[in-house]
Specification:
This protein has 87 residues and is mainly alpha-helical. Helices cover 80% and strands 0% of the residues. This is Phosphoribosyl-ATP pyrophosphatase.
Length: 87
Amino acid sequence: MKTFDALFAELTERAATRPTDSGTVAALDAGVHAQGKKLLEEAGEVWLAAEHEDDDSLALEISQLLYRAQVIMLGRGLTLEQVYRHL
Ligand SMILES: N=c1c2ncn([C@@H]3O[C@H](COP(=O)(O)OP(=O)(O)OP(=O)(O)O)[C@@H](O)[C@H]3O)c2ncn1[C@@H]1O[C@H](COP(=O)(O)O)[C@@H](O)[C@H]1O
């Protein structure tokens, strides 16, 4: 099962090697404004799923929110350690 750290390593590799079929590369190239809109969209979907949907649907939306947060981190060049030290 993929963890938050493993996904971050995978996305870091995508950003470095820039495969043409990578949605992450496209999201990074789209810039912080587009990345932020996606993050907010996913946050809203998490809220709605928490109110109205089943556990698996909620888990899916949360996974997408975590992915979008990682895209923002990568776009800014943040490391996991910079975030984790605030936990
Ligand atoms: N975990 C994710 C992930 N979560 C969400 N998403 C993206 O977010 C989309 C879902 O968001 P929405 O609900 O907004 O759906 P949508 O509006 O139809 O999507 P888009 O039009 O924005 O593509 C998915 O279609 C993906 O594009 C993700 N894209 C990639 N990953 C993982 O990231 C890794 C690298 O992916 P690539 O960069 O694409 O190779 C792989 O392991 C993937 O599993």
